[in-house]
Amino acid sequence: xxxxxxxxxFVGTVIAMEAFAYVAHRWIxxxxxxxxxxxxxxxxxxxxxxxxxxxxxxxxPSFVLLLGGVQLGWWPGFTWIGAGIAAYGAIYFGFHxxxxxxxxxxxxxxxxxxxxxxxxxxxxxxxxxxxHGTVSFGFLWAPRPERLKAQLKRQGxxxxxxxxxxxxxxxxxxx
Length: 175
Prior knowledge:
The chain is mostly helical. It is 59% helix and 0% strand. It has helices spanning 3-29, 34-37, 53-70, 77-100, 113-126, 145-154, 164-169. Helix 1 crosses helix 4 and helix 3 packs antiparallel against helix 4 (77-100). The radius of gyration is 19 Å and the shape is globular.
């Protein structure tokens, strides 16, 4: 296989993985797979959560395609596709686990409109504690924050976690 074809397969796979991630997140993780994903919508105690099993589950096709393409004599394109899946996983880990959820300590502050939009969208996704009523299921692409806020408002904010500051405002006065 020509290297240019391989690069196209690789890039195409990374792009297609965003669509796959959206579908898996919306209809599997917030559907029958909620029993694992629910841990990600609650405060984490410790380094791991059940939701982390999805990383291992989604790594299996990448591993199999890389093994088949490199070692087992399968079509060489499978190597590029497996590498594209692995690359998306690495990008996702960097954005999602490191930058947004700060699972590794850092001092990164987003400056670009793109990064601010992605982080804002993901935070709005996590504002909903339940499996239903949440917004923004993709990760490398996200709708505008204004659109997501309007969507949450239209849904009546069902399942939306009350911010700590708002809870304090509505607390009964003591004294």
